[in-house]
Amino acid sequence: MSSGNPHEAHCQDVLAAVWLFLDHECDQACRELVRRHLDECNPCLAAYGIEEKLKQLLARKCGGDRAPNGLRARLREQIRAAVLEQAEVTVEYGPAGTTVEIRRTRIERRG
Questions:
Q1: How many domains does the chain have?
Q2: What are the tens digits of pLDDT across the range 35-88?
Q3: CB pairs under 8 A, 24+ apart, for 33-36?
Q4: Which end is more exposed in the chain, N or C (fewer Cβ atoms within 10 Å of the end residue's Cβ)?
Q5: Which residues pair with 94 in a beta bridge?
Q6: Does any domain span residue 90?
Q7: 107 pLDDT higher than 60
Q8: What is the pLDDT of residues 79-98, one digit of tens each?
Q9: Residue 25, domain member (yes or no)
Q10: Do 56 and 76 share a domain, yes or no?
Q11: What is the pTM of this model?
């Protein structure tokens, strides 16, 4: 998606950050970048409007619903285990304390 004009940020990057922007979960620099891009790019502004309406609809229809604490705790633990497994990190809890083993280090370079 593009308005045909050059922008400081790519449309796909801005659209990927829209939910962070809507939830106020991005830093101030990201917020300004998204805001400037939306001011300049009508196709992204239209897509943003759809996402904003969807967020409002979800809040209206599901806003009061909350997962039970037990379910939330189990999900949090499963997510933590999956992240540690993917990173090849082992955490063991024993009488002598906690042991953390990292089997592989991965460095990604961009640019």
A1: 2
A2: 999 999 999 999 999 889 988 888 888 766 777 889 989 988 898 787 777 767
A3: 33/8, 33/9, 34/9, 36/8, 36/9
A4: C
A5: 97
A6: yes
A7: no
A8: 878 777 776 767 777 888 87
A9: yes
A10: no
A11: 0.49
Establish if 1 belongs to a structural domain. Answer: no
Q: Which domain holds residue 29?
A: 11-62
Structure tokens at 77: 């633990």
CA distance 59 to 13: 25
Identity at 105, one-letter amino acid code: T
Is 43 among the domain residues?
yes
Classify burial at 14, counting beta carbons within 10 Å of its beta carbon; exposed 0-12, middle 13-18, buried 19 or more: buried
- Long-range contacts of the stretch 20-28 (C-beta < 8 A, 24+): 22/51, 22/52, 22/55, 23/55
Task: Give the CB-side neighbour count of residue 48, counting CA atoms within 13 A.
Answer: 23
- Written as six digits, the tokens of 91 are 């955490």
